[in-house]
């Protein structure tokens, strides 16, 4: 059984988000519902039928808000259970045990969110910092392992600019996470083909999921990396997305918007020599395998 609709899947997005309290930036409060709905309707016209929303507890998760976006656009939006990273953790991460945190996550998958009958479809985005994997972050990783074993749903991680991607993959797989249900996020940002190969050797999926964020890495470089992976037959382990987290990322504020991946980045991949069937693999087949 597969919970995804037929069509393209964006594997790492946020329909709503609020990191403004910590970041002290109003732009980090993604609460522009009508503009989000408008862009999602345009995505539907481009063939997008699923969006994985990795906003979780501590990130301003708003389940009814996302349900309305889903209802008004016709796109299936999968919501997440979990905790993000320092300094965005809620108090319970520090006061509860690993087992209690795991039970919180599993409960949202098996029984649904408190404010809705909807159920979480994955554990994400589970993150680590750039400087170190902090004790609290390790605690959440361990809780995600337990919740994954109980629920069998995928885990989608956050790496800070790709740092600790290899360590995340090695640790989670060693703890019994099914590599076919594990996506290591933001691996494109590391920008090094040798490192990306090392992550992929663990049998996991990687997210090239910051498409359009050229302040971190030029999209031409992302396209070149994907071409190299394609030549080695490794696109079967890659998923795509944009990870828009700010109002300024949407078109009404002058940003590139969600459509950019389809209107600008996919043409780059085609120009680089990546076949249409391999583009479909990243946007359709691989997500279907992860959620099957």
UniProtKB/TrEMBL annotation:
Q: Does the keyword section mention Hydrolase?
A: yes
- The answer to keyword Hydrolase applying to this record is yes
Tell me where on the tree of life, at the top rank, the source sits: Bacteria
Question: What keyword terms does UniProt attach to this protein?
Answer: Hydrolase, Metal-binding
Organism listed in the record? Faecalicatena acetigenes
* Listed Pfam families: PTE
Q: Which family does it belong to?
A: Belongs to the metallo-dependent hydrolases superfamily. Phosphotriesterase family.
Q: What is this protein called?
A: Phosphotriesterase-related protein
């Amino acid at each position: 059984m597969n919970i995804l609709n037929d069509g393209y899947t964006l594997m790492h997005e946020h329909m709503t988000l609020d990191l403004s309290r910590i970041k002290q930036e109003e732009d980090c409060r993604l609460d522009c519902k009508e503009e989000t709905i408008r862009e999602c309707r345009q995505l539907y016209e481009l063939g997008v039928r699923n969006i994985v929303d990795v906003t979780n507890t501590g990130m301003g998760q708003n389940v009814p808000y996302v349900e309305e976006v889903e209802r008004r656009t016709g796109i299936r939006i999968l919501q997440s259970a979990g905790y993000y990273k320092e300094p965005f953790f809620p108090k319970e991460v520090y006061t509860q045990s690993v087992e209690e945190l795991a039970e919180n996550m599993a409960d949202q998958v098996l029984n649904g969110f408190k404010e809705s009958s909807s159920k979480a479809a994955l554990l994400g985005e589970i993150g680590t910092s750039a400087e170190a994997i902090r004790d609290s972050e390790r605690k959440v990783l361990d809780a995600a392992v337990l919740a994954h074993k109980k629920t069998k749903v995928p885990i989608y991680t956050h790496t800070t600019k790709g740092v600790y991607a290899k360590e995340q993959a090695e640790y989670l797989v060693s703890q019994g996470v099914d590599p076919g249900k594990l996506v290591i996020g933001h691996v494109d940002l590391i920008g090094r083909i040798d490192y990306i190969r090392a992550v992929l050797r663990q049998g996991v999926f990687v997210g090239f999921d910051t498409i359009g964020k050229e302040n971190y890495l030029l999209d031409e470089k992302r396209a070149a990396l994907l071409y190299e992976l394609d030549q080695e037959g490794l696109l079967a382990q890659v998923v795509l997305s944009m990870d828009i987290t700010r109002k300024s990322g949407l078109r009404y504020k002058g940003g590139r918007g969600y459509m950019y991946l389809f209107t600008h980045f996919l043409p780059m991949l085609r120009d680089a020599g990546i076949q249409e069937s391999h583009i479909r693999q990243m946007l359709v087949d691989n997500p279907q395998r992860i959620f099957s």
